[in-house]
Design brief:
The structure holds two protein chains of two kinds.
Chain A (H helix, E strand, L loop, with lengths): L11 E5 L26 H13 L4 E5 L9 H11 L2 E6 L6 H9 L4 E5 L5 H8 L4 H14 L4 E7 L7 H10 L4 E6 L4 H5 L1 H4 L3 H17 L5 E5 L19 E4 L5 E2 L20 H7 L1 H5 L16 H4 L4 H8 L15 H9 L12
Parallel strand pairs in A: 1-2, 1-8, 2-3, 3-4, 4-5, 5-6, 6-7
Antiparallel strand pairs in A: 8-9
Helix pairs in contact in A: 1-2, 2-3
Chain B lengths: L20 E5 L4 E6 L2 E5 L1 H8 L7 H11 L4 H17 L6
Antiparallel strand pairs in B: 1-2, 2-3
Helix pairs in contact in B: 2-3
The chains are: A alpha/beta, B alpha+beta.
Chain lengths: ~350, ~100
């Protein structure tokens, strides 16, 4: 008998091409234990993954890292993504990416570039990145992106040291010719978790930043798209993390492990499959890690009977584990979670300590 | 410079900017508009309009063509197209 496969088709592939990066941002989303260069997937294997992703229904590939330009075969990878029919998005620090390589990427069919900028204030930006001169190089490469006619997004990660400059950040993105800017409040995983007390803003700062974004959206309507990632520690309800576990996105690590989200490895007991041993379609449909929290069958109360269970899917599984110690629990940022007071305690724990920079 | 809906004239030649692509995808169930870190599902009507936004045809010609192809009243199509393209321009998904 024929079986109807009701697993939804994913939309996006986050391809972490390498964990190598010249910068040391203290909120880096890479895991504390970084994949080594020798373990990175080779060019032909990534090309196979891109083809399999497209057959699975994936539309966009986000070429990320680490710093993706640390891979010398980046133009070939962009070409492979294009040939597979994927929309390619380069997520870069811009440090280590030359104008010449950028030209080769545009030629290879790159669709969009996202450059991270750590602050509108240059000395502060370089301090956050842990790299002197980073800010100037980013601004120069951003101009080159625009000169080549590629659409540019500027990604600004917001935390206690720069949260008062949201307006200047948006002005900077506009002056660089970006068509889109992300005001992304730090999400506390990986290195950000390690630096949480040094990065955590106050509620007043967060409220002001959210208000600012609304004002700036109205002011620059039609000129630049402002997307804001909410600071979920101060939210009432959790974020619909990844749009639901195993529902829309696939993350492939530099060494080929396939994760439902970049932080998923923190959850103990999950079994991840590798593209060296399985096709992406097999992994998406049948790997234990993807099946673990897909849908709503795994839920406990208060999620199980909650009217929002298919809106936010109980929030983030990693955060539930990291804060409540149970990956099946409601995301503790939800005010309905019995562990919500733990989040309140964490937001109160702020300390102007020196950053613990991510290692390279 | 603000490009709002009311400003799209009949002489404008709308086009999808670089980084925005209309594509058909079976697994996603139809037409999709691919944009910087966003994907929009496009219904059949939207797809018919966007297919014609090639930077060569004027808005007036696009509306004429749609009215003819779908045997529908021109004014109604004109107002639908202007509304759609204006909202896409606001989201940086269309140039004109």
């Amino acid at each position: 008998m024929a079986a109807l496969d009701l697993t939804p088709a994913p939309l996006g592939l986050l391809a972490e091409l390498t964990h190598r990066c010249p910068l040391g941002c203290p909120y880096c989303s890479n895991p504390l234990a970084l994949d080594k260069r020798d373990d990175e997937l080779e060019t032909a294997l990534w090309a196979r993954v891109f083809r399999e992703a497209a057959s699975l229904g994936i539309l966009q590939v986000h070429l990320s890292g680490g710093e993706p330009a640390a891979r010398r075969d980046l133009p070939e990878l962009v070409k492979a993504a294009r040939e597979a029919g994927l929309y390619s998005n380069l997520i870069t620090s811009a440090v280590g990416l030359t104008a010449k390589t950028l030209g080769a990427l545009a030629e290879a069919g790159l669709d969009h570039v996202q450059i991270s900028i750590q602050d509108s204030d240059e000395p502060s930006a370089d301090h956050i990145a842990g790299y002197k001169g980073a800010s100037a190089r980013k601004r120069a490469l951003a101009s080159e992106v625009v000169r080549l006619g590629l659409p540019l997004t500027v990604n600004m990660v917001v935390h206690r040291a720069n949260i008062g400059r949201v307006e200047q950040m948006v002005e900077l993105a506009l002056s660089l010719g970006a068509s889109r800017v992300e005001i992304a409040h730090v999400q506390y995983y990986g290195w950000a978790m390690k630096n949480r007390a040094a990065l955590m803003p106050t509620r007043e700062q967060v409220d002001e930043a959210i208000r600012q974004v609304e004002v700036l959206r109205a002011r620059h309507h039609g000129q630049i798209v402002i997307d804001a990632v909410v600071p979920d520690y101060y939210a009432r309800f959790p974020k619909p993390c990844m749009g639901g576990w195993g529902r829309r996105s696939v993350n492939v690590t530099p060494a080929g492990k396939v994760l439902p989200c970049h932080a998923a490895e923190v959850i103990p007991g999950l079994e991840f499959w590798n593209v060296r041993e399985h096709s992406l379609a097999e992994i998406w449909r049948a790997s234990p890690a993807f099946s673990a929290f897909r849908g709503i069958g795994w839920m406990e109360e208060p999620c199980k009977s909650c009217s929002r269970r298919e809106l936010d899917f109980g929030g983030c599984r990693c955060q539930a584990f990291l804060i409540a110690g149970n990956a099946r629990a409601a995301d503790p940022v939800c005010h309905l979670s019995p562990h919500h007071t733990l989040v309140e305690q964490l937001t109160a724990k702020r300390e102007d300590a020196a950053y613990s920079y991510r290692s390279s | 410079m603000d490009q709002s809906a009311a400003q799209i004239s009949d002489d404008a030649r709308p086009r999808l900017p670089r980084g925005v692509r209309l594509t058909h995808n079976e697994a996603q169930g139809g037409w999709v508009l691919l944009a910087p870190e966003r994907v929009f599902k496009a219904d059949a009507v939207t797809a018919e309009i966007l297919k014609r936004c090639n930077g060569e045809a004027t808005l007036g010609a696009i509306v004429d063509d749609l009215a003819k192809t779908f045997a529908a009243p021109r004014e109604r199509i004109h107002s639908d197209v202007v509304k759609l393209l204006g909202s896409l321009a606001d989201k940086k998904l269309l140039e004109h």
